[in-house]
Amino acid sequence: MNRPLPPFRINHLYRCITDMDSKITRLIEQASVIVGALPYLQAYRDKTFLIKFGGSAMDDPRLVKKLMRDIVLLEALGFNPVIVHGGGKAISKAMMEAGLEAHFINGLRVTTPEAISIVERTLSGTINPGLVQMFRDFGGKGVGIPGTEIFVGERIQEKDEQGNPVDIGEVGNVIGCLTERVTEALELQITPIVSPLAKELGTHKPLNVNADLAAAALARELKPVKLIYISDVPGIMKDPSDPSTLIKSVTRTEALELIENGTVSGGMIPKIHSAIDALNAGVRKVHFIDGRLPHTLLLEIFTPDGIGTEVIREQR
Ligand SMILES: Nc1ncnc2c1ncn2[C@@H]1O[C@H](COP(=O)(O)OP(=O)(O)O)[C@@H](O)[C@H]1O
Ligand SMILES: CC(=O)N[C@@H](CCC(=O)OP(=O)(O)O)C(=O)O
Predict the structure, then answer these.
(1) Which of 29, 170, 245, 275 is deepest in the core (most CB within 10 A)?
(2) May I ask which residue range the UniProt record assigns to the signal sequence (predicted)?
C-alpha cells in the first residue's frame, strides 16, 4: 500500500508544478507575441522602410545598439530597412574641440570650408562606420554608403529673419539621387546605411546636407511604405517642453501651420519640410518617434496605433 507523502514533499512537488506552469505560461505569452506579428509580417515583407536616425538620439550607446539590433531583426524578417543617419550633436562637439562655434540658420548648419572637413570626418569616419559595425555585430548585413555616392547637391541660399539672403557655406539641397547602390544592396537583402553628404553638381565637392532632407530625397526615389524619423522627442508637441502635448496625427497643412505659428522650431523645421516633401512625392506615411524609448521602431511598426506623431497627406 502507498504511504501518503509527508507534507514537505507535497509542498516541494506543488512548487515544482507551479514553477513549471508559470514558465510555460511565460513561453505561451512569448509565442502569442510572435503570432501577433503575423499581420505585420504579411503586410511588410519585402517592403522598404526608410529610417532617419538623428544624432540627437545617439547619446546613449546602449540604446543605439538596441536600435541597431531591432533593425537587424527587421532585415532578418525580410523587411527592407534603409538607414539615413545624422550626427549633428557629434559634429558640433568636434567643431568645438577644433575651436569652431556651431551656428544654425533655420535648422541648417552654417558650414565654412574649415567646417566641412570636420563634418565629413565625423559622418564618414566615425558615425557611419560605427553604426555599420554595430549592425554587423548583431549578425546584420549592413553596408555603409557615403551620401556623396548617392546625392547630387546644389548650394542653398537661406534667408535671415528679415528675409535677406545669407550664405551658409558648403551646404546643399539634394537635386538628384543615384539610387543604384541602395537598390543593389536591397536586392541582396543588405541594409544600406547612408551618410548625409552630397556631391556638388559641377565641382564634385562635398556638401553638407541636413540628414532629414537627405532622407526625404531618398524617400522620393525609393517610395518606402514608411519614412520614420527617430529623434530625441516623443514626436511633434504643442509645447516642446511638455510631452503630454504630443500631437498624434497631423496633415501636411496642419504641419506647415505649426511652423508658421512658431509651435515648431530649430531642428524640427527641416524635419517637417522633408516629411511634407516625401508625402508630396507619394510616400504614404511619415512618423516621428522617440529614440530614447527602447524598441521604439518595433512599437511603431508592430502595433496597431503605433507611437509618436504621424504626418499624413489628407484630413482623417
Ligand atoms: N514643437 C516641437 N515638438 C518637438 N520637438 C521640437 C519642437 N520644436 C522644436 N523641437 C526640437 O526639435 C529637436 C529635434 O531636432 P534635431 O535636434 O535636429 O534632432 P535630430 O538630431 O534627431 O535630427 C528636438 O530636440 C526639439 O528640441
Ligand atoms: C546642413 C546641416 O545642417 N547638416 C547637418 C548634417 C547632420 C544632421 O543633419 O544630423 P542630425 O540629423 O543629427 O540633425 C549638420 O551639420 O548638423
Answers:
(1) 275
(2) none
